[in-house]
Amino acid sequence: LDENELRTIAPKLQGLAVEAQNAQNWHCARSYCEGAVKWYKKSKDFNNAYKVQTTIAETFVAEAESKIVGDKPSHMLAGHFLECAIHAYREIPNKDRATYKVNERIDELHKKMTAANQLAQNEMTLLETPGIDISQMVEDSIKHVAGRELSTALLSFAYIARFADVEQSRKSAQ
After folding, report:
1. What pTM does this model have?
2. pLDDT per position as a tens digit, 53-68
3. Contacts (Cβ under 8 Å, ≥6 apart) of 4
């Protein structure tokens, strides 16, 4: 591609990203933006690359906000997407962060993430499974190493479990 063609690809991807954002298709919007960032960097247009990188971060913020509205809000998911936004902002080099007010935005998002994570604790529920009786395994393990010197006992304990037979595993898989 010549230089003129190279410069047209990233803006086209940005346009597609805007369409995806308007449709609230956050993943797709980020994918287009990630492509635009790569093409801007390839054409050495770092200013636009970092500008689009902020858009990537903000799609994570928008997705986080979309997770706390509606019938089943999830602050846990919101916290996750806010963390992703912070990571996206951190892709911008330190020397260029002041231009895009990255550090201020990261601080703000960190506070929102902390609040979301606090609320996420209320969403967690206890899951219980029936107990598993491992008393026989414990007894067998103790018998396996009893009466041995420490180094020998540790070695014996490390190899107490049998390794899978590769040939047998292949046969059973077929």
Report:
1. 0.74
2. 999 999 999 999 999 9
3. none
| Sign of the alpha-carbon torsion through 135, 138, 139, 140 | positive
DSSP, res 92:
S
Instruction: Say how far apart CA 174 and CA 170 lie, in whole Å.
Output: 6
The first and second tokens of residue 133, run together, are 């009786």
Q: Is the pLDDT of residue 162 over 70?
A: no
Specify burial of residue 110 (Cβ count, 10 A radius: 0-12, 13-18, 19+): middle
Q: How far is CA 104 from CA 48, 58, 95, 110, in A?
A: 20, 14, 14, 10
Tell me which residue of 101, 89, 86, 22 sits closest to 53, measured CA to CA.
Answer: 89
Contact assessment for residue 144 and residue 156, using Cβ atoms and an 8 Å cutoff: yes
